[in-house]
Amino acid sequence: MYQHLIEQNRITHNGQIHYVQFNNIVNLGTFFAASSWVSQFINDFHKKIPQAELAEDAVKIGKALLAFRAGQYDEVIYQLNTVGIGNQDHALRVKSLLLRTYFEMDSNGSLFKSECKSYRQYFKNNSLLKAVKREGRLNFLAILRKMAKTKDWQPLRMEIDATDVLSNRMWLLQKVMSTAEWEKEMDIRFGV
Question: Which residues contact 104 (CB under 8 A, 6 or more apart)?
Answer without folding.
Answer: 68, 71, 73
